[in-house]
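Entries read chain and fold; for instance:
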Amino acid sequence: RDRQEMRDSAARSEAQAELDRQEMRTSFARLETNAEKDREAITNAIMNLANIVGGIHNRVVKLEEK
């Protein structure tokens, strides 16, 4: 009986370990997706800043020409 309980316990532990591994894989996939979205947002923000700086530069150049 003790051996059967040990086998059952080991089987439950292995099943739980597999669930934990699946959960970790899902979490990593979610993190990768979020990281990609963050990279896109940062890229867009940098491009927006570059456009703003370019616009300011053009205005300064026009003012200097006057």
